[in-house]
Design a protein that fits this description.
This protein has 366 residues and is of the alpha/beta class. The chain is 35% helix and 24% strand.
Length: 366
């Protein structure tokens, strides 16, 4: 099977390449068990009123998580790093396989049509990488080319899309997939500190896959026009996943100022993204922003002059799943696609944020 799209002179003038990459399908998956925030507070026996407030004021209703097994007393104890790595491998492969199959079904394709698989994850380290494990698990052609993006964090889905869009332009008519699989349950620490409480109140397990293709033909999804990237070097330590010697495991850190840092720099990246296109922010009909947390979303809304309607999918994903790391924006895109409101000629902006601190954006057009 060959999936492809028609060339477009106007878009080629914006993007440069003769071949225009287009979204062909999307699919998502989550882990087996979900919990409300009050349920998690009870299960984890959290009594500190400050930590309870973080959970209960997060704008999150439920998250999918794989909690540590109960100890003899019925409590939950922190798992050693080795067990967390095993958990990451098991959950990421399972969710990744299901998201990939859902994505291919959405694209009207099968596993035999896949020519490039780019896997993204930051919740554990694997060698061989997630792409090789999923190719083996699903029986995908072992000649399928692949790439793995590891450790870039919540922004990495757009970094992967940039890579696969380039691959797609060089291989017209061939199907490529970006697959983000984040087993956030495998990146948790249970130590009762405020540092980990913020993380534990926010993240959830999830995987999302996006199929892309370029060439001659007809595919109904939006076309990728342009990317923009920005590293806020003054805040490079504000979001990080590093080794905690006290806990003897990796631990994620979020600086409380991150929402304001991201918000203050969002305009810089949007302006660069739209530069040379003849578009203004008011011309953007669809905004798909990473579900990084309530304060992060609010900061982006205020600084970019967006409405709550503009970020309805972002806030809906946060409410129903929490922060899904690199795949969050694809959960939002799936909801927009299901909504069916995008029309030919509409423009959209995809925005992700992550460690570095970094902001990634992409401009798309239906």
């Amino acid at each position: 099977m060959t999936i492809s799209i028609a060339p477009d002179e106007e878009l080629a003038a914006v993007t440069g390449p003769a071949e225009i990459t287009r979204f062909a399908g999307v699919g998502t998956a989550v882990s087996a068990t979900s919990y409300s925030q009050p349920e998690l507070l009870d299960i984890l026996d959290v009594e500190d009123p400050r930590i309870r407030s973080i959970f209960l004021n997060s704008a999150i209703d439920r998250r999918f998580l794989t909690l540590p097994p109960e100890d003899p007393g019925g409590g939950r104890v922190a798992e050693p790093q080795g067990d967390l790595l095993d958990k990451h491998k098991k959950i990421a492969v399972d969710m990744g396989c299901r998201a990939l199959e859902s994505c291919l079904k959405s694209a009207g394709a099968t596993l035999s049509d896949l020519r490039h698989l780019c896997c993204v994850t930051s919740t554990g380290f694997l060698t061989p990488g997630l792409s090789a494990l999923i190719i083996r698990e699903l029986g995908i052609d072992p000649h399928c080319s692949r790439s793995d993006i590891v450790g870039m964090g919540c922004n990495a889905g757009l970094n992967a899309l940039n890579l696969v869009a380039g691959w797609s332009a060089a291989h017209p008519g061939e199907l490529g997939v970006v697959l983000c699989a984040e087993a956030c349950s495998a990146a948790y620490a249970l130590d009762g500190t405020m540092r980990t409480a913020v993380v534990n109140s926010l993240f959830g397990d999830g995987a999302a896959a996006l199929a892309v293709v370029s060439g001659d033909g007809d595919v109904p999804g939006p076309r990728v026009l342009k990317f923009a990237s920005y590293v806020i070097t003054d805040a490079i330590e504000a979001m990080r996943y590093d080794w905690d010697r006290d806990q003897d495991r990796f631990s994620f850190f979020l600086d409380p100022q991150i929402p304001y840092v991201v918000g203050a720099h969002a305009e810089i990246v949007v302006d660069r993204l739209l530069s040379g296109t003849g578009l203004r922010r008011s011309d953007i009909g669809h905004w798909l922003v990473h579900s990084g947390g309530k304060k992060v979303i609010d900061a982006v809304v205020v600084n970019l002059g967006l409405s709550r309607h503009d970020v309805r999918h972002t806030t809906g994903v946060l409410r129903d799943y929490g922060n899904l790391s690199s795949g969050s924006f694809l959960f939002s895109y799936e909801r927009l696609a299901e909504e069916g409101v995008a029309r030919s000629g509409d423009h959209g902006v995809l925005m992700t944020m992550g460690p570095g601190s970094t902001i990634e954006m992409a401009l798309i057009r239906w």
